[in-house]
Amino acid sequence: MAIMTSHASLSGVQPKLAIVEHNGGYRPTNGREISTHIAKFSSAGHPDLVFNEYLTTQAFCELLPKDEVAAVHIGDVMGQRDPALIIERFDRVSGNRIHFEEFNQLLNLKSSAKYDGSYRQMADWMVSKNECIPTEKFRLFQRVLAGILLGNTDMHFKNFAMFHTSAGVRLTPSYDQVGACLYNYKSMALSIGGSRNVLIGDLNAKHIVVLGQEFGLSVPAIQLCCDQLEKNRFLAKEVISNGVVGSAVLKNNLITQMEKRWNGTFASIGNYLSKRP
């Protein structure tokens, strides 16, 4: 029941390790050692999860080629039998930590409340901060739309974060891009247009336009986001199809999901916008 209502996190079933580079490979951290990477492993219930996240992340990079995305690759970790998704930590520079906060922290929510809210709350928080430039809100909207197209229903408050810099608050690189809908996580993690637990299969053009309005975006800006996805979606499908990891079944499922979302959610946005008064 928790999974079907999007109140169970996919990350909660995925083993993780803090790791560091060592002699050309990776090993778990020791004590208070500062990690350079994070390793994610597949679980018994989701044996292809590592490959799913890798392929989905590569597709996300193609959809938003000008955005920043956490660097990932498939590799081995000392002492571990199974391959891992190796994620380079974007909050590390020369062995030092860079301060950032996930949106559940920025919104003063407990970690357990990461599903209790809407995508609009993040946009409203950005608008309320003078040190956050308007383009960050546009980038966030792009990320949510790309995630929807890729079937990432698990986009909750902990999966978006911001750096605190001398120039102001800025989005961190995107991370945790995974086609969660393939594992029966069917409803969106956060509310859209005041509707909670919206099934991804029920999302249509109106939902996207309403979401854009919640972000305070103009009709041309909403259309621009969708046009960019349309322009790049074939490259996204190609990078999945040509991926060096993952089964043919997984790749086909990810591509099929993209086609369903495009045809069912995005393809009619232009017509919908043209008919609005």
Please describe what this structure looks like.
The chain has 277 residues and is α+β, with helices and mostly antiparallel strands. It has one domain. Helix content is 38%, strand content 14%. It contains 8 helices and 10 strands. The protein has a 5-stranded antiparallel β-sheet, with helices on one face. It has a 3-stranded antiparallel β-sheet with strand order 8-9-10. The chain has a two-stranded antiparallel sheet with strand order 6-7. A hairpin with an 8-residue loop joins strand 4 and strand 5. The longest helix has 23 residues. It is globular, with a radius of gyration of 18 Å. The N terminus is likely disordered.
Topology, please?
Elements: E1 16-22, E2 25-28, E3 37-40, H1 49-63, E4 72-75, E5 84-88, E6 92-93, E7 96-97, E8 100-102, H2 103-106, H3 119-128, H4 134-149, E9 161-165, E10 168-171, H5 205-214, H6 219-241, H7 248-266, H8 269-275
Antiparallel strand pairs: 1-2, 1-3, 3-5, 4-5, 6-7, 8-9, 9-10
Helix pairs in contact: 1-6, 3-4, 4-6, 6-7
